[in-house]
Every structure is written in C-alpha cells, then in structure tokens.
Write a structure and sequence with these properties.
The complex is a heterodimer of chains A (118) and B (143). The longest helix of chain A is centred in the last third of the chain and has 10 residues, at 98-107. Chain A contains five helices and five strands, in the order αββαβαβαβα. In chain A, 36% of the residues lie in helices and 18% in strands. Chain A has a single domain (3-112), classed as 3-Layer(aba) Sandwich (Udp-n-acetylmuramoylalanyl-d-glutamate--2,6- Diaminopimelate Ligase, Chain: A, domain 1), CATH 3.40.1390. In chain A, strands 1-5-4-3-2 form a five-stranded mixed beta sheet, with helices on both faces. The model of chain A has no long low-confidence stretch (mean pLDDT 95). Chain B is α+β, with helices and mostly antiparallel strands. Chain B has one domain (4-138): Histidine kinase-like ATPase, C-terminal domain (Heat Shock Protein 90), CATH 3.30.565. In chain B, strands 1-2-3-5-4 form a five-stranded antiparallel beta sheet, with helices on one face. The longest helix of chain B is centred in the N-terminal third of the chain and has 21 residues, at 36-56. Classes of the chains: A alpha/beta (118), B alpha+beta (143). Chain A binds chain B through residues 32-36, 38-39, 43, 49, 51, 53-56, 58-59, 61-64, and chain B through 15-16, 18-19, 22-23, 26, 36, 40, 43-44, 46-48, 51, 103-105, 107-110, 112-113, 116.
C-alpha cells in the first residue's frame, strides 16, 4: 500500500515527507513499546504509535521503518519532525485511535507482521 | 577493507542525544557500502545498548570495530552493574522507572534484542564496577 493511500483512507495530515508518498509499505506495526518495534519490525513497514518523542524516530531509523503514523491526533515537536527529515522517514498524523487505524488499514489490505516471522 | 574502529561516549540520562552514537555507527556502515540487512542488525544492537547506557548506567562508551570478517559492538559502562544477569536477560524483566516506560522503553526486551541481533553475545557485570557487553556479528560474502 502506498503512503499516499494510507494518508487518504485515514484522513491523515503529512507532517513531513510529501515527496515520499509514493513509497510502498507491505506491513503495519502498532506499538508504543520501542523495543518491540526493534525486535519485530521488518523493512517496508509503517509504524503506528501514540508516542511522539525523538526516540520513536531513532527507533524507526535503526529498524529501517518506511513511515511513522501518529495516532489519536498526536503531533510531535518540531525537533522530532526535523529528525525524521534528516532520516528521510515520512511522518503523518491521524485523529483515529490505534485500534480504528489498524482496522481501516487491514480493511484496505495492509497486513501485520505474522507471528511465524517473529 | 582494513580494520576500522570508532568509540562514542554516552552520558547517563541524556535522552536528548540518546541514539546519536548508533545513528553515527549506522551512517559509517552505510558509507562503507555494507548490506542493509547487516547494517540493520548492528544498528538495532548498538541502539539497544546505547539506550541501556542512557537509562541504567552511570555513563559509558559504545565502540565499533570492523574487520573483514566481523563487526563487533562493545558497550562498556562505569556502573552500577547488574545483580542477576540471568534475570536481566529474561524477556519482559526490567528495572526501568515509570518515566522510562512512558518513553517507550523499559519493556525488558533490550538485552534479549541485543542477543538476537548478534552471532556471539557476551555480557559481564560486576556490581559496583560496571557492565561490558560484546556483540559480534559475522560478515558473510556480500555483506
């Protein structure tokens, strides 16, 4: 699924990365636990989270996450957006909660990381 | 490729800069043109170690040694040391505070994650002195 489609179906705002919207993601991973993100995420993943500190972007950087989608209307500080920019990670925000966001994306064909890949 | 080494200091409680050393390590490996899979493993291992230094230690260093056959990440700190390493290695066990958990860490996955990223994982700790973690990632043809 393209980041652009994810933006559209979630009525999300792009906080940074308008040029990166044609990137494809194969999986979504929803978590506020950054060590779980580091343990389980594969490349080609969009991270769904309610955490907005700089460690979320650092975690995404290390795990080669394609894009970060903040849920529940969360918006990070400018320095966090700047860090995403330095690492070419698209960041978006949606008003939906994590569960609803996940459900909508699942409905549009995006899948989670399967347990046998963990 | 000859042998390359870098060492980065990591301060305790410096959440502003936490992750900078690992970010630099990742960029070094990228500049060397290494495979993205091995870069990712090293970056994740280094980052977990760096976060542990920031969260749990009194300060320390992260070091990377690259030779033609392997990459070694060494995290060494000045204390306080780990009482029970077996317990610390257990997934889900953590001594992190509520404040750390609110930042998305302290889920008790740090050391297990480091082990998972490494081909050889060694941890030594002396209470009152410090902890030393060595992660060795073997390089294959094409890395």
């Amino acid at each position: 699924m393209k980041i652009r489609e994810i933006r559209d179906v979630l009525n999300a705002d792009v906080l940074w990365g308008e040029d990166l919207l044609d990137r494809e993601v194969s999986y979504a991973f929803g978590s506020d636990l950054m060590s779980d993100v580091l343990a389980f995420v594969k490349t080609g993943t969009i991270l769904l989270t309610g955490l907005v500190n700089s460690q979320v972007v650092r975690t995404a950087e290390m795990a080669d996450v394609t894009a970060i989608l903040f849920v529940r209307g969360k918006v990070p500080d400018e320095e966090v957006i700047q860090l995403a920019k330095e690492n070419s990670i698209a960041i978006l925000t949606t008003k939906y909660t994590l569960f609803t966001t996940s459900g909508i994306l699942y409905n549009y064909g995006l899948r989670g990381i399967e347990a046998d890949n963990i | 490729m000859g042998n390359i080494s870098y060492e980065f200091p990591v301060e305790k409680d410096d959440f502003e800069r936490a992750g900078e050393a690992s970010s630099k390590i990742k960029k070094i490996l990228r500049q060397l043109g290494m495979d993205s899979g091995i870069i990712r493993r090293v970056a994740i291992g280094a980052y977990e170690a760096e976060m542990n230094l920031v969260i749990h230690s009194l300060g320390g260093t992260i070091r990377i040694d690259i030779d033609p056959k392997s990459i070694i990440i060494t995290a060494e700190d000045k204390g306080p040391g780990i009482h029970d390493i077996n317990l610390a290695m257990k997934e889900g066990y953590s001594t992190a505070t509520e404040k750390i958990r609110e930042m998305g860490f302290g889920a008790g996955m740090g050391l297990p994650n480091m082990k998972r990223c490494s081909d050889i994982f060694e941890i030594q700790s002396i209470v009152g002195k410090g902890t030393k973690i060595v992660m060795k990632m073997n390089l294959k043809d094409g890395d």
